[in-house]
Amino acid sequence: MTYSAVKTDKNRYGFCVNRLCLFCISVSEKVIFFFYDAYNLKKERGDNMLTVLEIERNNNKTFMQKIASLFHPYEISTTIKKHNKISVLCIKYRLNRGKIRYKKIYDYAICAPKTVICSNELELENTPFSRFESDEYARIMMQNAVCDILGRAAVSPNSLRIAYYDPMADAPLFTEKLSEFTSQLMVITNMPRFYEKESERLSESIGASFTVNNSPERLSDCDILICPKRIDTKLPVSEKTIIFTSSKPAVSLKGTVIYEFFPEFPYKYQRLKPESIDGVYFLSALYSLGGAKELAKLVPAACGDGQILYTAERLAQRIRNTSEEINSVISYNELNAEKRSV
Prior knowledge:
Layout: H1 2-44, E1 48-57, H2 63-71, E2 74-83, E3 86-95, H3 102-108, E4 115-117, E5 130-131, H4 136-153, E6 161-165, H5 174-178, E7 184-188, H6 192-205, E8 211-213, E9 224-227, E10 242-245, E11 256-258, E12 260-262, H7 279-288, E13 302-304, E14 309-311, H8 312-341
Parallel strand pairs: 1-3, 1-4, 4-5, 6-7, 6-9, 7-8, 9-10, 10-11
Antiparallel strand pairs: 2-3, 12-13, 13-14
Helix pairs in contact: 4-8
């Protein structure tokens, strides 16, 4: 009996040692693979790496899936795609139950940027991550669309009244382009010194100029209003005014407000884009974070006001119609003036 008891204790001791060894091996493997993945990620990131975070919520679970979610509340997978010097790390997090465990996600992005490309519905406050947001690329697309539309309209510079609303002088250089399409360019700004210098420069270099003032009330006479930044105050525009701005205004405005711009997505970058990420938003990230500056040359194929899509030709036709109305009014006034002089 004594021998049997001793033997049993030895068996228990051996069992415990085996379990401890297996546990140590398991932990060692995880540590080794963690650093191996981190090394590969650092090796793959190249000059410019983008981090995409996709959250999928498994709300429609069967009974067996609900049982399984007790043991596996989440699933994480990662993929890395490359194009030249741009790498995109895509982290997919499938939530089966409970809250999103951002610390677990962080382990998979240890060597990647923490500014992530993700849905704007994702709350990232008090997490290691922040959502990528920038209006720079949207402003470039807005400017490209305006130039394309005005070029298609091909109206007389004397028959088109364009106003450029830039309170903080964020983009004064665009006035040079606008001067090609109108001789009646008016700039509304709270920083007149910047624009007065630009007007002098244009007058000396190409013989063009524009008026500068800080009175938004003057906008009531414009046919086209262009705003490089988001509009956050009411402006006295008419129902016929076409407004181009880089993001959705914070206030309601009269007229047609164009703030969505849709360029054709370049084929060479299509394999980098995750399906759940908006195309224009991803192009903005490629431009700002990935260094793909050639994307600034794209011209939007369509524009939108949040409800209706407009082709460039459709908007150009509206501008031609406006120009014809102005010309007819000018001709009528000139005719009356001649009659009165006679």
